[in-house]
């Protein structure tokens, strides 16, 4: 069975062809980083317009690289939400039209399900149940994944997402966009313990996150340094900020695993490509005897392959999507 996966929830237009639930025949992506870079963040209208330009070439390239045609496709899986409505509508409407004209079954999947399942694209696959930490530009959530279809939200951010905090700190330090990779590059030469930024643990045993206070602490630190005419040690700020984010993400994920008696942890979302987060999680899992699965960086960030995989599983149990479905901005995984 061949599934065409289409992703356009934010600022990447991606498509992939997946054979059954395991063999990826192609996975292509058109990034909008250059478009949004001058603004230091994603401009929704520009994102929608870029998707319009890229959607047809991306699907055609995915088919070409997989050496198949639309006539070979058995299922189309497209991101239905969460995300920017204008961006989602481009991929979703295109997928609907393609499915209707070609008489191909269509499923709309939750983008978060894609991130939770992305580790299954790798050769060494986690087995269920597992705890998934999904950290991206729009969300920071911990899920209990019982199987390919059943996900329970255990904790989420109450304000900024982890990726959003990285992006905002990068903007503050004039590091450019996208911020995450730039902050992490600077951090690699800085001292993690140079500045003690706050960690928001929230209530005892809470699995929720909060990163807005940390972002403000970085801002206050920069103001104070300027007032004192001290030169800002950008790499130290980045390393100390990153450490505060990583410590909270790691501690709460391990806590979720302990609370629910789960031995397997999976990472997903753009921030999970952060080398320090991966290193800290690897060390902590080794110490506590847990198995850690981290998708390769191209499956951490937005991609069409995870959408194809999530759609494949969804179709097996729920069949095609009713035609009157629409996109949505907030995840339906609760
Ligand atoms: O999953 P993703 O590609 O898109 C969303 O669904 O949001 O995640 C993008 C986010 C951005 O905020 C980006 O700055 C962050 O992931 N990111 C990183 C790193 N690479 C990407 N954050 C920290 N360290 C990185 N190496």
UniProtKB/TrEMBL annotation:
It is an enzyme of class 2 (transferase). InterPro entries: ATPase_NBD, Gcp-like_dom, KAE1/TsaD, TsaD. It catalyses: L-threonylcarbamoyladenylate + adenosine(37) in tRNA = N(6)-L-threonylcarbamoyladenosine(37) in tRNA + AMP + H(+). Keywords: Acyltransferase, Cytoplasm, Iron, Metal-binding, Transferase, tRNA processing. It is found in: Cytoplasm. GO terms for biological process: tRNA threonylcarbamoyladenosine modification. Its EC number is 2.3.1.234. Binds 1 Fe(2+) ion per subunit. Its cofactor is Fe(2+). One of its GO terms (molecular function) is tRNA N(6)-L-threonylcarbamoyladenine synthase activity. Residues 24-308 form the Gcp-like domain. Pfam families: TsaD. Its main location: cytoplasm. One of its GO terms (cellular component) is cytoplasm. Fe cation binds at residues 111, 115, 302. Substrate binds at residues 134-138, 167, 180, 274. PANTHER family: TRNA N6-ADENOSINE THREONYLCARBAMOYLTRANSFERASE, TRNA N6-ADENOSINE THREONYLCARBAMOYLTRANSFERASE, MITOCHONDRIAL. Belongs to the KAE1 / TsaD family. HAMAP family: TsaD (MF_01445). Required for the formation of a threonylcarbamoyl group on adenosine at position 37 (t(6)A37) in tRNAs that read codons beginning with adenine. Is involved in the transfer of the threonylcarbamoyl moiety of threonylcarbamoyl-AMP (TC-AMP) to the N6 group of A37, together with TsaE and TsaB. TsaD likely plays a direct catalytic role in this reaction. This is tRNA N6-adenosine threonylcarbamoyltransferase. It comes from Candidatus Desulfatifera sulfidica. The gene is tsaD.
